[in-house]
Amino acid sequence: MICRSVSRQLLTAALTVLAVLSLQLPGAFSLQVYLNSLNIHSIQRIPAIEGHVSIYFQCTDEGQIYLPKVQAQDVQYNWIDEELAVVSVAARSCKACAFYEDRKFPLKKDNVLGSLFQVCEVDFADTGKAAKSQEGQFDASLSCQDCKAPPPTTPAPVAPPSSRNAHKHQGLSYGQSLALIVASTMLSCIMTAALAVLGYKWHKARQRAHAEVAFDAALHDSGLGLDDAFEQDTEAFHQSLLHPSAWYKLKDGPSDTGS
């Protein structure tokens, strides 16, 4: 229960932080598009009845962005960089937008200057700027520096082959040769160790066999006492180690090789 409560509190805190960031940093999760210039070529407003010109920018299902600076047609109005944010777009997405003339005439619908046009992230990929225009209606320029594609990376230069791996194209590579040497060395060590173990076991078995024969001969010799049998058994054992071919009978004692 305690773990569930702590997990729930951590999740709530994480969601709260994300919500605060989304409010404080609107560009952190979207790409902000700004209006840099606008020139209106066709205005249908009747000044005597509707008053001054009122132009706004709006995308589908979003709010209206009024442009109070625009007061007359065929005049270019400019905004400095990132002064007037008009829409935000997500990566690899588009929004349908348009410029509108706000009509104050009763029962008169606002005029669309031209038609809807698409504002897409890809429009700004090259320079961070995009031009939108419709003949006889308007000319506009938009900017989105965050939409610019990153510059292409320069491939790292390829180093010439060194003498260490000069034989790479002549049979085995350097790495393969090194691996073969290591494998051969390990195999030789393993075989040497195996032969040493086998030799040791064979030597111990030979010692046991000689000792058993000597002990059996001593036990079956009626002329020997128990202490003498053990003494000759030990002597026979030592002689078998030093001179395996000169095997003799224990009851006759060691032979006189000097005569």
Protein architecture, described:
This protein is of the alpha+beta class. The protein contains four helices and ten strands, in the order H-E-H-E-E-E-E-E-E-E-E-E-H-H. Strands 1, 4, 5, 9 and 10 form a five-stranded antiparallel sheet that branches. Strand 9 (129-134) and strand 10 (138-143) form a beta hairpin. It is rod-shaped.
Name the descriptors:
five-stranded antiparallel sheet, rod-shaped, 259 residues, alpha+beta, 4 helices
Residues in helices, as a percent range = 25-40%
Q: Please, how many helices?
A: 4
Mean pLDDT: 74
Structural class: alpha+beta
SSE sequence, one letter per element: HEHEEEEEEEEEHH
Overall morphology: rod-shaped
Q: Specify the biggest β-sheet.
A: 5 strands, antiparallel
What is the strand and helix layout of this fold?
Blueprint: H1 2-24, E1 31-40, H2 47-50, E2 55-59, E3 64-66, E4 76-78, E5 85-89, E6 94-101, E7 111-112, E8 117-120, E9 129-134, E10 138-143, H3 174-219, H4 226-242
Antiparallel strand pairs: 1-4, 1-5, 1-10, 2-3, 2-6, 6-7, 6-8, 9-10
Helix pairs in contact: 3-4
Give the gist of this structure.
Helix content is 35%, strand content 20%. The chain has 4 helices and 10 strands; from the N terminus they run αβαβββββββββαα.
